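Task 17 of the worksheet. Students: predict the tertiary structure of the chain below and write it out as structure tokens. Keep your answer in the requested format; marks are given for formatting as well as content.
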Amino acid sequence: VVPGSLDFTAVQNYLQPPEQQTDVAHVVRGVIEAEAGAIKHYTEIIDDLKGPTRELYGASTDVWRGFGALHKAAVADGALPGKVKELMALVIGIVHGCDGCIASHARGAAKAGATEEEAAEAIAVSIMMHGGPATVYGARAFSAFTEFAGPSVDS
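Model answer:
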């Protein structure tokens, strides 16, 4: 099984209790566990991006300031709460397969007060809309969210 090539039946089987899973579900579980084991902790991903981001910021300060203002305005509470907007951005990160986006918006959603249940439901929408690849990046996103929603969200 290649990551991102999982079908809906395999995912349904994976979600069953272990004693009710088919052989396919065990393969799916193995792929998801392998993906989770292969990825760094999401705090490390954010830390790894700090240096290159600072360098790029220095080379294009006005653009980064504009992006920062755009980000702040886009995730501010309004008709939709900020946590919903961060979950939307998390889902977009999943669909694009962007670990940096996943890390940033998982942290943002956790800081904004999103719950594990809300994160799981948002991730489920990404799976419905994007299929197999979202099962891989969705698992990563849920791992990132639970990492940031832990005792120290201010990382």
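Marker's comment: The chain is about 75% helix and 0% strand. The helical segments are 8-15, 23-38, 42-59, 61-75, 82-96, 99-111, 116-130, 132-148.
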